[in-house]
Amino acid sequence: MTPYRAVLLAAAIAMCGCGSAPPPAVIVDYTYEVVHAYPHDRDAFTQGLFYQDGVLYEGTGLYEHSSIRRVKLETGEVLAKRDLPGQFFGEGIAPWQDRIVQLTYQNEKGFLYDLNTFEPRGDFSYPGEGWGLTCDGKRLIMSDGSSRLRILDPQNMQELSRVLITDDGGPVPSLNELEWVKGEVFANIWKVDRIARINLETGKVTGWIDMRGLITNEERGSDPDNVLNGIAYDAQKDRLFVTGKHWPKLFEIRLIARPSSK
Predict the structure, then answer these.
(1) Rounded distance, CA 102 to CA 149, Å?
(2) Can you identify the CATH homologous superfamily of domain 22-257?
(3) Rounded to 5 degrees, what angle do the CA atoms 247, 87, 72 make?
(4) In tens digits, what is the pLDDT along the chain, a chain of 262 residues?
(5) Are 59 and 90 within 8 A, CB to CB?
(6) CA gyration radius for the chain?
(7) Closest CA to 255 of 200, 203, 191, 181
(8) This prediction's pTM
(9) Measured between alpha carbons, how far is 127 from 130 in angstroms, rounded to an integer?
(10) Cα 215 vs. chain centroid, distance in angstroms?
């Protein structure tokens, strides 16, 4: 096709509208209903959370205080615990087969543990910071505090790709703790009481969950870092759990879609 004919064709498409972009997808806003509140260890600086086979697993942070834990949901009792060496600041955790994978904040190093015994099963390296981590059954999905999620091969922990996460075309910064829920990534936003629902294939936010009001200011405490952080999903019973850093409670919640204003 000659350049002249290409210009004419483009003009014709524009005039008939058949080349116009599809309308943007509707982003759904949600609030929540508390189904049940459970005790949560106030000393836990929650960085990662997941629920598997009737048990809650939690990764905690801060230097000299980082750990992985197996927790009894109903009572908050710590059933098993493994501390990290004091020079490591623990971050997100996720299950992979018979392993737990754990990130660290600025050490550029992750750790593997036996899911049942918490015995070390190796380590791996990655560039930059580690924040949140989840697994879709085939791939590990990692956040680093930016607007991009990294896709990792769980067999060798090598990075496969990165996905830019956007809301109405703009990047969504400070993606933090992650959870895989019914084919979507749920992501905490650092220091914001909102959770983003993300289509990982497109990178687009499909919904926002307003989590304000879960705990009182007194329960949250004076530390500005005691924010919402920790999402776990019980796939067998379709239950969604959330908590925060140094929060005294962990909540089972049910999402409620808000009526569209359009």
Answers:
(1) 16
(2) TolB, C-terminal domain (2.120.10.30)
(3) 35
(4) 443 334 333 443 343 344 444 455 789 999 999 999 999 999 999 999 999 999 999 999 999 999 999 999 999 999 999 999 999 999 999 999 999 999 999 999 999 999 999 999 999 999 999 999 999 999 999 999 999 999 999 999 999 999 999 998 899 999 999 999 999 999 999 999 999 999 999 999 999 999 999 999 999 988 999 999 999 999 999 999 999 999 999 999 999 998 765 4
(5) yes
(6) 21
(7) 181
(8) 0.88
(9) 9
(10) 20
**Cβ contacts of 109 within 8 Å, gap of 6 or more:** 88, 123, 124, 125, 126
- Cβ–Cβ < 8 Å for 164, 209: no
Full strand arrangement of the beta sheet holding 46-52: 46-52, 55-60, 67-71, 78-83
DSSP state of 26: P
3-state class (DSSP) for residue 217: helix
DSSP 155-189: TTTEEEEEEE-EETTEE---EEEEEEETTEEEEEE
Beta carbons of 177 and 94 less than 8 angstroms apart: no
What is the rounded CA–CA span in Å between residue 198 and residue 241? 17
Given the structure tokens 């459970």, which residue do they identify? 38
